[in-house]
Amino acid sequence: MELDTSVTTRRKKKAGSAKTPSPPQWRATLALAGVKQLNLLFLQMLAAMVAGGRLSRFSVLVEHRSLWVTLDADALQRAADKVVILFDLHFADDPWWQMVTTNGVRKGPPQPDGFPAKKAAHLIAETLRLAGEVAREDVRAARALFGMSTRVAKRAGALTAEQIDRIADRYGNELQTRWEDRRLFWSLLLIAAKTDDREALRQLQRYSVHLLGRDILGDGD
């Protein structure tokens, strides 16, 4: 099953015309590359936390520590090479986003077993910039890539640079691993990435799209 995030309209091609992707198709390609880069930043952060012994808050790290410590840079890249985002920031929770984009809440105290503040802030900021760009082109594409509800995708598209910086600075502790309760998914993903099992990675690609589709359909939006 392929995930189509193209925001182009179909046009009849003139005979003999060059088959050059239109600008929106290029933007869709860049968006997919951006999602994979964000996944890589997130997985690198998780791997660094395992290496530093910061495990207690995240079951996906505790339960799969023996796998995380064996992943090299190439394995992390293979695990990150997904067309959907592997982390979550209340992307299906419109009331939460309404709160943080209007009144906001106080920045909570740093958690010793949480994500490193600077790395989390950078990841959130880059994610919201990309999600906003995609949402302004096509809300459905933002939903498909980030697992956002329609309302959250529209909010992401309307975020100002100041709002993005504020959210990134305040809410690093709200980052979550997507599907953390699906232990088998993460176990299979890490094993396939470690062993470079390309067929398993392709199957997990399709499965991740399926899971995100279920999340989107289940948000009632």
Element-level helix/strand string: HHHHEHHHHHEHH
Number of domains: 1
Low-confidence stretches: 1-23
Strand order, sheet with most strands = 1-2
Estimate percent helicity: 55-70%
Helix tally equals 11
**What's the N-to-C terminus distance?**
23 Å
Approximate strand percentage: under 5%
Mean pLDDT: 84
Q: What characterizes the major β-sheet? A: 2 strands, antiparallel
Structural class: mainly alpha
Number of strands: 2
Shape: globular
Describe this structure in words.
It contains 11 helices and 2 strands, in the order ααααβαααααβαα. It is mainly α and 221 residues long. It has one domain (24-217). A two-stranded antiparallel ribbon has the order 1-2. It is globular. The two termini are 23 Å apart. Residues 1-23 have low confidence and may be disordered.
